[in-house]
Structures are given as C-alpha cells and as structure tokens.
Design goal:
By secondary structure, the chain is of the alpha+beta class. It contains 4 helices and 11 strands; from the N terminus they run βββββαββαβββαβα. A hairpin with a 4-residue loop joins strand 4 and strand 5 (48-55).
Length: 186
C-alpha cells in the first residue's frame, strides 16, 4: 500500500506503507510511464561516433555547486502525449536533443533503474543507428539544462570518460550502462 505525501505536476513524494516496518519514502513521476535513453551510433566516413550531452542539472548544482553531468540523450515517455509509445519517444527525443534521425533503434534494456531505493523511475535504453549525418532539426537546450553536445569516436570512449571524470564532470549511471551496451553491440 502506498500514500502520496507530497504532489507536484512532475514529481510526487510517496511512502510505501510496509507492515511492521518503517515507511519507505521515494520519488515517483506521475506524468510519465517510462524514460528513454538513446545511445546514438553516428556512422561517418572516417569512423563511428556517439554523442554525449553535457547538462546542468538543478539537483546536482544545488547539492554540489556548478557541476556538469555527462549523459546520453534521454526523455520521458508520455509526459506530453499520454498515448505516446516508447518507440515514438525514442525517435522524438533523439531528434529534439541531437538533431539526428535514426534509421533503426535496437532496444537493449527495458527495465533499467538507476536508484531503486530512491525512485520508481525505470528506463528503456536503445542503440540508435544514424547513417544520414545531416542535422534535420536544430537541437533544443531543454530550458537551459543541455549545455552542450560532444561527438566522440566510439574507439576513444574509454579515454574520453577517464578525462571527463578527472576534469570533475559527473557521469550518469545511464551513461555507463549505455557505454556497456555500445561496447557489446554486434
């Protein structure tokens, strides 16, 4: 049994009422049925690349100062259109956040969670194959959250991530999961 302790349009604080145990309080998104994480594989003539976003996330800034986080493109499923499917969200979010259209999406994980003790949020992670490297639409900044975009050769990801962490950039758990699925793709 659960009880909503505090409710906003985008986030609820919920208590799981556990018989004989203390309540477990967690965050829940009432306006989305899933999250999509997109790992773009951009096929260029010289090599295959992926794109990372640098973000400025208010919760991280409030707790740790002016920090930057490295992420893959991502977004909510059903936040604007309650009938939206995961497949539709994958296409929409990739186009909005990178300007690219993918020819194919390969779903690698459907129930990826980042902090199951703190949030009920789950994600679907997919590899997006991009062969047409022409930008189709100007990417959004998502209200100032997306600070930049970085295309990195897939073969250089290990050293790139090492450098980012040494430079004090935060790495999202979804990014590490995405890199794993990128490295193990066939």
């Amino acid at each position: 049994m659960k009880e909503t302790l505090y409710s906003t349009k985008f986030l609820n604080l919920v208590a799981s009422k556990r018989k004989g145990k203390a309540d477990w309080v967690y965050a829940h998104r009432p306006n989305a049925k899933n999250v999509v994480i997109i790992v773009p594989v951009i096929h260029k003539t010289d090599a295959d690349y992926t794109m990372f976003l640098t973000t400025k996330r208010p919760p991280l800034i409030e707790e740790y100062g002016d920090v930057t986080c490295l992420e893959f493109p991502a977004g909510l499923v059903g936040d604007e259109n309650t009938n939206e499917t995961t497949e539709e969200a994958l296409k929409k979010e990739l186009l909005e956040e990178t300007g690219y259209l993918a020819e194919k999406f390969d779903i690698k994980a459907k129930n990826l969670v980042t902090s199951g003790g703190m949030t009920s949020e789950k994600s679907t992670l997919a590899i997006a194959e991009v062969f047409d490297t022409k930008i189709k639409e100007k990417p959004v900044d998502d209200g100032g959250v997306i600070a930049g975009r970085m295309e990195v050769k897939i073969q250089d990801i290990g050293s790139f991530l090492d450098k980012m962490e040494k430079d004090g950039i935060f790495l999202s758990a979804q990014t590490i999961a995405g890199v794993y699925y990128l490295a193990t793709r066939k």
